[in-house]
Design a protein that fits this description.
single chain, mainly alpha, Arc Repressor Mutant, subunit A, two-stranded antiparallel sheet, 4 helices, elongated
Length: 135
């Protein structure tokens, strides 16, 4: 009989190469119903949009499809009181996207909450990671 974690394949007991020690930190996700209103990936996308001025360029810089990035932006925009990302239609001058004031505020607040959560869980995470396999 095979149990979870006993299968041998290209992964080591279900741990992929992408799961590194860097990922052994708590990750904060803020839910609104069943939707993730904000999490580490969405925060990274907002930062990339702020840096590039474009959803398309931000997606490309993250190795993500434009469609996926647009869906994430749409989820965020629908989850907050007003849009976090404001867009301009494309055309001869090109389109573009920028964070709204609320987008900047939400991103700053999210990072502040991440720092507090990481600090509050530091001791417990140290104990917990001792239970995990080495990379």
């Amino acid at each position: 009989m095979q149990t979870m974690g006993s299968r041998r394949d290209s992964r080591k007991n279900g741990v992929t190469e992408a799961m590194t020690k860097r990922n052994r930190t708590p990750h904060l996700r803020v839910l609104l119903g069943s939707a993730i209103a904000m999490g580490p990936g969405k925060a990274e996308l907002l930062e990339a949009i702020d840096k590039t001025g474009s959803i398309s360029k931000a997606a490309k810089s993250m190795g993500m499809s434009y469609r996926r990035a647009w869906r994430l932006v749409d989820t965020m925009n629908c989850s907050f009181k007003s849009c976090l990302v404001e867009t301009n239609r494309g055309g001869s001058g090109g389109g573009g996207a920028q964070l709204s004031d609320l987008g900047h505020e939400a991103l700053a607040q999210f990072h502040k909450m991440e720092e507090k959560a990481t600090a509050a869980l530091a001791s417990d995470m140290k104990d917990f990671t001792q239970l995990l396999q080495d990379d």
